[in-house]
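Appendix B: complex inputs.
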Amino acid sequence: MKRMVSGVLLIALIALVAAVPAAASTFLAMDRTELVREADAVVQGRVLKVESFWEPTGTVIVSEAMVQVEEAVIGRTPTIVRVKTFGGEVDGFYVDAHGFPTFQADERVLLFLEDDGEDTMRVTGYQLGQYRLVPGEGGAELAVPALDEGASLLTADGMRAPAPEAQPLAELKDQIRAEARRLGKSTD
Amino acid sequence: MNTAKTQRIARFVPIVALALLACLIAGSVSAYVLLSPRRTWDSDPNVRVDSRGQSSIADGDGGRTRTRNAIVSSAAWNGGGAGTVVNATVASISGFRLGDGIPMLNFRDPIGACTGNCLAATFTGYYTRRSNGTWRIYDADIVTNTARNFASLGETCSGTEFYIEGIMVHEVGHLLGLGHTNVSGATMFPSVSACNNGPASTAADDEAAIRDLY
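Resulting structure:
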């Protein structure tokens, strides 16, 4: 009986944890083809540091992540790129930009990037264009989608889009290069 | 079937039944979700709805009046059983700035945050931690992608448009401190079909959330 109660409690706990999401903005989903088409570059790299500050206009807090590029999967980039996103914390004032990419120093990432007209880049497709790299089984790295519950994703007809899944980094990069070739984009 | 096998199966029936019951209870308990950390306004926010309207809406005033009415409607947050929790006024949003303490619904995107595949983005600003560990929302603003097409109930909706009323009642839910729910059909469910204004009317799950917060 004790074992039965423990089992039930465990299942309830798993159900509770699995059912808890977090916050949001509303986005149309983009598939891999659209991400590759829209991106000026796709890079694998390490976040060196993240700084948050008020935009010069004083309208919103933005964050900039300095990313050391380990490999440009497609496109050409400097060895360090500055990636801008919205939200952050300045002097104890927090701005949550729900569903936007977030960065932490020292994390390794794969990013679909586009020029934003300044000397910074932004992540294509918001969180859809961001993967976090973590060790997988057997030493192979896994690319884990950064998508969290802050984003409402809609397909073109308004239905809930399926979330992308984690996959081996090497496989993901091969797929991105193949898609870029198919679209006639340079993989240099 | 032999007796031993029947007994083994019979032993598992209550376990499976209890496990299913536990999952159901867990699912219902955790349906609505509040933003983390928990945050609320000190007094009812008065959302300024952009008086310019949304350029793709052809109902005579760019959807501004219908959006304002949807936000304060008793079918939405103010009818959730917590009394009036949000006000809204059609007004100028010049001087748009996150951190000024004036919640605004901007039908454009002066900060360039919501482009490409973004339809609408909500920002919440909170910085005062109360003694009970919750946070005070000081400001929240919503911006809209002008490159996307919306419709209001005052016009015909095409198959690729989204009703501005439903989208903005959903976004105002975030502005008030709510996250997404897993209850399909609720305003705070994270998806909606094109031309479906269902989210403009809150469901029991949304109302439980707003009563929890306010």
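Strands of chain B lie at 39-40, 46-50, 87-91, 104-105, 118-129, 135-144, 150-151, 162-163.
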